[in-house]
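User: Could you check the structure of this?
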Amino acid sequence: GINAEYGAPAVEEAVPVVAEVAPVAEEVAPVVDEAAPVVEEAAPVVEEAAQVVIIEEAASAPRPAKAAPAPEAESTDTVIFVEPSQDPAKFPEKVQYLLIGAGTASVSAMRAILKAEPNAEILMVGAEPHGPYMRPPLSKELWFNEDKAESSQLIFNDWSGNKRSVFYPDKLGDITDLAPGSPALLKGVKVTKLDPTNQKVTLSTGEVLRYGKCLLAPGGEPKTMEALLPTEGNDCLSTRVHLFRNIAQYQQLSNELNKDAKVLVIGGGFVGSELAYAMTRTGAAVYQTFPEAGNMGRVLPKYLSNWTTKQLQTAGVNVRPETKVLSAECAENGVQVRLSSGEDLVVDHILVAVGLKPSTELGDSAGLEVHKEMGGYVVNAELEARSNLFVAGDAACFYDPVLGRRRVEHHDHAVVSGKLAGQNMAGAAQPYHHQSMFWSDLGPHVGYEAIGLVDSTLPTVGIWAHKDTSESEINADPTEKEKYEQGIVFYMDSNKVVGVLTWNIFGKIPIARQVIASGEEQQDFGLLAKQFDIHTKH
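Assistant: Sure, the predicted structure tokens are below.
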């Protein structure tokens, strides 16, 4: 599918990740500032002794008052000069804009703030050792790049054939470079406490930082299953079970996979289905399990879900629908997995894609409301949770004026909600009314884009183009025997379109957004479908 929100190439940002750490063992003094978190965690005692001389003297017996000088012995004194882990004079007491989380939403917010205030002072704090990057290519395009040297450098080919890096190109300096108009990033650091009343945060490094305005964009953590947790005797699960979410997990898996490997993907949603297809590109034997009747069974109407499952099976995925994992035990030749069907599989790797839990652990210290059913911080129409505290991305539970309260876990939502939050932090005071979209590619014959409420429990109307005719066909009882090569699916609620999915039709999301926003009751779907050019080759 087409995604115009992917950032421009920034290959140079992928290299310094290793370069920053390597010199530590060779020259401590010049790079302690950059590698501060490493020194701080490994040897807290050294930090206390910053800028002092440590002298260790061997104990000796008392000497007579006028004894002759003893022969000079080999020196047992140790002298260590250590720079402070963080120069107190350069660590700010307060920043104008604080962005918690170093992902897409924060990058989008930063751009919006700088556009409104070119001289804004912005500090971004992220737990990962990298700069901000895009997550979608980790389960999509990176696996499709046949140049393994490029993919190992996190470079992929976008929909137009251009080479791009997963890293955003935005320039972010070190904390010592923080200045008006020059944003900075604290890498490998977490915010452990948030005090919105006094507008301050406590960092994992111990510093307390005050802010003028703050964005919470922590994203989320992938869910796992109790049966896959490492236990005594099953330690191998700690290295063979992958909660696919970040660069480190992608790199580990891509380095270990080969044509002799066996992989089990758990989950039949967007990411699970994407990964299942992507794994076939490695030559590995791929199995996929999920409790639904077909791939993306919670999103697609049944006939389309079943047809998609057959496409994945044709691509080489051994699909096990309506199946759950009961147990996983370390075996001599891998991991033995027992399925609810009674089947046992022995695999080398298990990829878990069963959903995301929004990161809301700061809610307790901050006194923020977390939605009981949907999860995420409850925010108003301007994405504000408290005065001068905004939320964007996966962790925002916002009110949609057309579809009601929602929480969305898609790249486009992170881009748009981050942008609006940044604009509102700079004083725009605009409500969030954007219908975010998402897209997926499941091989050469399946690519789709969708927007709004796309839920298989809703009634749908599908308009499909026949390859050998220019006429559409009305079928009240569709089956997976048909060829669903190009068409559009409308998701309905009280005769109103609340969601649109375009199947192998790209670039029509703006039209779909207008259809949903109109809130009009629809009667003539053939006329409505003509706006989407379903017979045109895309």
